[in-house]
Amino acid sequence: MKTPQKQILLVVLVATLSMLVGGCERHSKSEQYFLIATHIGLPYWQSAHAGFTRAAAEYGVSEEIRGPEAFTPTVEVDEFRAAVARKPAGILVSVADPALMGPEINKAIAAGIPVITMDSDAPESQRLFFIGTNNLEAGRLGGQRVAAELNGKGNVVFFTMPSQPNLVERLKGYQDVFASHPGIKVVEVFDMKGESGTAMDKAREYLSRTGASKIDALICLESSSGKDVGEAFKRAKPQNTMLMAMDVDQATLELVKDGTIQATISQKPFTMALLGLKFLDDLHHYPLKPLTRDWGSDASSPVPAFIDTGVSLVDKSNVDKFLSPPTAAP
């Protein structure tokens, strides 16, 4: 073989090898994934973002978290629309208001952008599936603890945002348990409107009640209110009144450790977001056809309808385990 022929053959081999290797490189920094959250300043969402970032680093893709700095569903919708306009590889979203977000999810799906919900769902939308806590069971877990502490009798109040689907399910879980304890009376379901300071002010008013109107248990259904209601507890020093919280940010855990909060319920936002990006990446490279199909009702669907990431009850007996720094490799 003459030298020029060898050179031509070498060029062809190199080009072919480059094409083959390039075809095997599934991931690229040009692939952009968005996490749209309800209140990005909360430690809960910082934990979720850490999981999202971990998955993006493993895959070598790009990621970004977007959302309001305070609980503002309309602003969250605006952030979702802005993400869709950038034609990303996929979007993971926690839904503050399904009536507002549902139509936007449907538009994204129609445009060929995979959308998965996490933490709080929009089940009537065309989202592909939901990753998160079984919130009904989380409420039942908390309800069992409250019922046991009150010996089945007492006045209770809730701090929540009534329009948020995951909080609605948690409330129902508590109510399911209390239905078996007729001595437990739900005095009020207080709409804190996403403001933990409002929850603190209302807690002070609840803790000032005496006699037949005395509140025996204050229950926080979302993460931000636990620490501020706990502060109201520390100042009022109520007798025979319990506080039940939600989630495991550092401030809440410290209040569990010192006995201000009787117990809290741990979720796994890190896990939700990490799995969310990985599933979105798979859907980007191996798209469902058609994306608009009702995959949740398909008995042969290649995707699940719901991934339950689990919950745990945290009290003085195990709080140190949750306060310990994570040991997982970066």
> Can you identify the CATH superfamily of the largest domain?
Response regulator
Shape: elongated
CATH topology of the largest domain: Rossmann fold
Output mean pLDDT.
Answer: 91
- The total tally of domains equals 2
Chart the SSEs and their pairings:
Layout: H1 3-24, E1 32-36, H2 43-59, E2 62-66, H3 73-85, E3 90-93, H4 98-110, E4 115-118, E5 130-132, H5 135-149, E6 153-160, H6 165-178, E7 183-191, H7 196-207, E8 217-220, H8 225-236, E9 242-244, H9 250-257, E10 264-266, H10 269-285, E11 306-308, E12 312-314, H11 319-323
Parallel strand pairs: 1-2, 1-3, 3-4, 4-5, 5-11, 6-7, 6-8, 8-9
Antiparallel strand pairs: 10-12
Q: What do you see in this structure?
A:
The protein has 330 residues and is of the alpha/beta class. The chain has 2 domains: 144 residues, Response regulator (Rossmann fold, 3-Layer(aba) Sandwich); 132 residues, Response regulator (Rossmann fold), CATH 3.40.50.2300. The protein is 45% helix and 16% strand. It is built from 11 helices and 12 strands. The strands form 3 sheets. The protein has a 6-stranded parallel sheet with strand order 2-1-3-4-5-11, with helices on both faces. Helix 8 links the parallel strand 8 and strand 9. The N terminus and C terminus are likely disordered.
